[in-house]
Specification:
Number of domains: 3
Structural class: alpha/beta
Mean pLDDT: 94
CATH superfamily of the largest domain: ANL, N-terminal domain
Strand order of the largest sheet: 2-1-13-12-14-15-16-17-18
Number of strands: 27
Strand content: 15-25%
CATH class of the largest domain: Alpha Beta
Radius of gyration: 23 Å
Largest sheet: 9 strands, mixed
Low-confidence stretches: none
Bound molecules: 5'-O-[(R)-(benzoyloxy)(hydroxy)phosphoryl]adenosine
CATH architecture of the largest domain: 3-Layer(aba) Sandwich
CATH topology of the largest domain: Rossmann fold
Oligomer: single chain
């Protein structure tokens, strides 16, 4: 008994909980229904057992087959001795094993961390350290990168980690993901302990962040599933929906807006693509009669260009194209709708919670020029000035939000949470928005020190901290620069300590980019451009004036 109590305590450790009156309200309103994500998928698998759930290359899984694989994996994990609350880093590309690993781990109450394929040693070891993860599941290779080497480095350096599972070719010392012992019935092998409830943290999403290291976002079963079911309703998914997954599966957009989980909820079919290019995806769309795709604006632009250059207009074949993750230019939105006959839906969301959609029935001008409206009537939204005073409708200000699927704090970082949330629990999104007369949100910019590189978020401070460690860097400042394809790219301004034998600036640039890469930061965080300066411009407060640096770049 005592042991159980302490386990419950352990499950809440480092988590900022929803205050009791909000818990009551979200339950009373039927948002939180007390179902775990594992129970949720079992229900889907029973209801749609013979439907095709997943297509991954040549492999097809019915819902029943997928559940069978999940159960087998859960048995394996349980036999390995993993327990409720143990963290597991899952870093997989768009392959079926992602879902087996994710639902399998959840089945025994483990807590997955949704690492992206682009993450490298710096991020992965940080996630392991933060959560004391015991297991790391990765692919052998993807996009030319060998994850086994990364995994072994982590195994050497991270104390808590004691097992690697590799999808694909494993080294002799590793366990291959798909080699499991015999697969007797799940119920007899492992039972989810009763102390695990839907109110507990199910898994961790990752924040794009604006300070130092990426923060972990604890999502509970209850809050996440509410956003999933509500999103599936808004997006009108059904058993006939065929969704192509192009963006990384583990991203919040891909998982829940309405994403794979929304799709499973309605019994549709998910087709996985590892190649986001127009040529690869257009072939999938034709072959499988895809009805739904979600893209970031940069990909939507590159697909539109392919159509412009003479490829078949696949936009007209789709029932819906969702675009989100970064600001979609009005001109591209208009082109998609008016020229390519596309049914467009804009999605403005964040892994911390709040998601907004333009609705199918919205006026076309709203769909072109706004980022939609909130999922829930209980998503509380405020637009405030620098002093947190609420602004009249229509004025541009900081977006704050609180609601039934928005977190109240990042995992285990009380200091950071004091700035990222208001005292009464509103999340400071760092986005500058205005709300129009129709009640739709328009994203006008951001106040957080972050670069949105084609939907991939870079916390500038994280990269600056790495650059500043170089012995010849006096100080650095990472700023965004406009890019026609990605929307934004990064440029690092470097105040350089001259040495006698400095190579040319071109070579220095190469060396510095390599330095960041070797440090182990995700590839997309490596500065796209580097400028060497003798001194930095400063604000009146003595901080580096990034606005001036950005203006220099544009000039
Ligand atoms: C999604 O989630 P994250 O956590 O990678 O990034 C969230 C941030 C937002 O705070 C905002 O700055 C930006 O990404 N963002 C957009 C946007 N959608 C996201 N900025 C302008 N227009 C949009 N449509 O990116 C995400 C999560 C769930 C659904 C969709 C996107």
């Amino acid at each position: 008994m005592i042991k159980q109590e302490s386990h419950v305590q352990h499950l809440w450790d480092g988590i900022v909980q929803y205050p009791p009156e909000f818990v009551e309200k979200y339950i009373a309103k039927g948002y939180w229904v007390g179902q775990t994500i594992s129970e949720f998928f079992i229900e889907c698998a029973e209801k749609y057992s013979q439907n095709t759930a997943l297509i991954c290359g040549e492999r097809k899984f019915s819902y029943a087959q997928l559940q069978q694989r999940i159960d087998e994996f859960a048995v394996y994990l349980s036999r390995q001795g993993y327990q409720v609350g143990d963290a597991v880093v899952i870093q997989l590309p768009n392959i079926a094993e992602f879902f087996i690993a994710y639902f399998g781990a959840l089945r025994i109450g483990m807590r997955p961390i949704m690492s992206l394929p682009a993450h490298r040693h710096s991020e992965v070891s940080h996630f392991i350290g933060q959560t004391q993860a015991k297991l790391y599941i990765c692919a052998d290779k993807f996009m030319g990168f060998d994850y086994r080497t990364l995994a072994h480095e982590c195994l050497k350096r991270c104390e808590s980690l004691h097992q690697i599972l590799v999808v694909g070719n494993a080294d002799e010392s590793d366990t291959r993901f798909d080699v499991w012992p015999d697969t007797t019935k799940f119920q007899q092998q492992c039972v989810v302990p009763p102390q695990l409830t839907a109110r507990h943290v199910a898994f961790f999403q990752l924040s794009g962040g604006s300070t130092g290291t990426p923060k972990l976002i604890p999502r509970t079963h209850d809050d996440y599933l509410y956003s999933v079911r509500a999103s599936a309703d808004i997006c009108e998914l059904n058993e006939h929906t065929k969704m192509l997954m192009v963006l990384p599966v583990a991203h919040n957009f891909s998982m829940s807006s309405a994403g794979s989980l929304g799709l499973f909820y309605t019994g549709g079919t998910l087709v996985l693509s590892q190649d986001p290019s127009a040529s690869a995806c257009f072939a999938f769309i034709k072959k499988y009669g895809i009805s739904h795709v979600a893209l970031v604006p940069a990909l939507a632009a590159s697909w539109a260009e392919a159509v412009q250059k003479g490829q078949e207009n696949i936009f007209a074949r789709l029932e819906v194209l969702q675009v989100g993750g970064a600001r979609l230019a009005d001109a591209l939105a208009r082109q998609l709708i008016e020229q390519y006959d596309c049914r467009l839906q804009q999605v403005f969301g964040m892994a911390e919670g709040l998601v907004n959609y333009t609705r199918y029935e919205d006026d076309i001008e709203q769909i072109i020029s706004t980022q939609g409206s909130r999922i829930s009537a209980d998503d509380e939204i405020k637009v405030v000035d620098d002093e947190d005073r609420e602004l009249p409708i229509g004025e541009i200000g900081h977006l704050l939000t609180r609601g039934p699927y928005t977190i109240r704090g990042y995992y285990n970082v009380p200091e950071h949470n004091r700035n990222a949330f208001t005292l009464d629990g509103f999340y400071r999104t760092g986005d500058l928005v205005r709300i129009n007369a129709e009640g739709n949100i328009i994203v006008e910019g951001r106040s957080k020190d972050q670069i949105n590189r084609g939907g991939e978020k870079i916390a500038t401070e994280e990269v600056e901290q790495v650059l500043n460690q170089h012995p010849q860097v006096i100080q650095s400042a990472l700023v965004s620069m406009p890019d026609s394809m990605l929307g934004e790219k990064s440029c690092a301004y470097i105040q350089w300590r001259m040495a006698e034998q400095d190579p040319s600036p071109t070579r220095l640039t190469m060396q510095l980019r390599q330095y960041v890469q070797q440090y182990g930061l995700a590839t997309y965080k490596i500065p796209d451009r580097i400028e060497f300066v003798e001194d930095m411009p400063y604000t009146a407060l003595g901080k580096i004036d990034k606005k001036a640096l950005r203006q220099r770049l544009v000039a």
